[in-house]
Every structure is written in structure tokens, then in C-alpha cells.
Amino acid sequence: MDDDYYRLLVNKAEKDKCDVVLSNYVRKDSSHEFIAGLSFDTNDATYEGKEFYDMFFEQTGRDIRNHMLCSKLVSMDVWKSVLKVVANLKEKVVMTEDFAFTSVALYYAKRVGFCDNAIYYYIVNDNQSTSRKNITVEKINKNIHDIRTVFDFVKKFLQDQKVYSKYKDKLEIWRAFYLSMH
Questions:
Q1: b (16+ CB within 10 A) / e for 132-156
Q2: For the chain, what is the mean pLDDT?
């Protein structure tokens, strides 16, 4: 991450009273070669929480920045709410765990902001769950199991909040998209 990464996110959170602030994201391979740059050009936009939550589901997983936890600053109040809910996820998941946390955090956020100048550099580990290197049948099966577990968890969370019918179609498109990659 940039030297000023956290300062930029905290300043945005304080200035615009945001519960969650998203940064830009650069993906590099294990030798630090550039893979992809995913950047917002939002003029540091701020959204009301429910407005952003609608946008979050509208993109159906196509924009990884929205659900990667590492590219966000989350307020302590929201984080405490997230931990209470995620405690219901009883098994360890390594694939799509960010989606579980972010789906809850963004639901509880009253305001969500972007910080265009903050950049998180994500270095791909060749052994991580999303890596195509050294792939085995066991790893594929575990990834598929994790995706199903997390999407079922998010479905139940949305049902508990009585908003599942609003997001059902987008959630199922997102689930199918992720399962099709494995």
C-alpha cells in the first residue's frame, strides 16, 4: 500500500462521516509484475449506505474491489456488528471470505466513500485459494464448497434483515458467476 494509505482513508472517513471507505487496487503477481489496475475515478464520491448496498449487488461480483476487505477501512461500530453476524459462519472458509464480511459491513454502513488517491497493492501468492497454479481436485472442491457456504451465509443474512427478495436475483447471478470460475 502507499505510504499515506491509512491517513488518506481516515481523512476521508472523518471528513465525510463514512463508516466504510474504499481504496483503489493494483494486483501484482508473486514477482511483483503488474497484472491489473482497478481504479475508481469517483472524485472521492460518498454514498448513503443503502444506495451503495444496491450498487454493490448490482455489479454481481464483476468488480472485485467492492467486496475485497483488504481495500477498505471499516469503522469500529460497523466492525463490531460484522463480528456478531459472522460468528454464525461456523466453518473456516478460505474462498470468498471477503464477500461474507463485506456483505455485512456494507449493509450496516450508513455512509460509504471512495478515496481515489489511496492504493492497495495486492500481491498474488501462487499458493492462495484463487491461484490457478498448483491446482488440484481437492482445492477445486474446497473452493466450490466455500463459495456455496459463504453464499448461503449471505442469503441467510439478507433473509434475517428482510431484504433477501430485493437482492435475490443479483445474489444468485453472483453465485453462478463465481461457481463458473472453478
A1: eeeeeeebeebbeebbbbbbebbbe
A2: 88
